[in-house]
Amino acid sequence: SGLLSRLQTSAPTVRTLSSPKSFSQNIPSCLWKLGRLNHVAIAVPDLEKAQSLYKDVLGAQVSETVALPEHGVYTVFVELGNTKLELLHPLGEKSPIASFLQKNKTGGMHHICIEVDDIKAAMTELKKKKIRILSEEPKIGAHGKPVIFLHPKDCHGVLVELEQA
């Protein structure tokens, strides 16, 4: 007559999608495909300290520092089992990371990088969908592959890098 009997007699509510097909019908077909998360980039004010945190304290495999003058950054990659972290530090005063660190003194997440199977097709389609791309042509990124960046205001406040897989 109490709570126990009410629990025993009430039927559970089960929510399901009507069918897998109806869910996928809402996804438009593209000439390109979004792939896996390649890395999450973190701007750091002190690259040596950040490298030491991941290598010496957390025990991660950490790459050597690489200068990318075209992008105005030094990069270091931290290997994780399923993706990477990219540590970014300014290279030169005009570095976009320098201006980021002026606003975020202790550093922080800068961008995410997602692989695509056809970066040119992605650019064409994204432009048609009014997503701003921060360069006219792809640049060669830290992995030696073409990359583009999508405007954060068009991506819910997140700077998104797309990299040719």
Walk me through the structure.
- The protein is an alpha+beta fold and 165 residues long.
- The chain has a single domain (37-164), classed as 2,3-Dihydroxybiphenyl 1,2-Dioxygenase, domain 1.
- It contains five helices and nine strands; from the N terminus they run H-H-E-H-E-E-E-E-H-E-H-E-E-E.
- It has helices at 3-9, 20-25, 47-57, 96-103, 119-128, and strands at residues 34-43, 61-62, 66-68, 73-79, 84-90, 108-116, 139-140, 146-150, 160-164.
- Strands 1, 2, 3, 4, 5, 6, 7, 8 and 9 form a nine-stranded mixed sheet that branches.
- The N and C termini lie far apart (63 Å).
- The mean pLDDT is 89.
- It catalyses: (R)-methylmalonyl-CoA = (S)-methylmalonyl-CoA.
- Belongs to the methylmalonyl-CoA epimerase family.
- Pfam families: Glyoxalase_4 (PF13669).
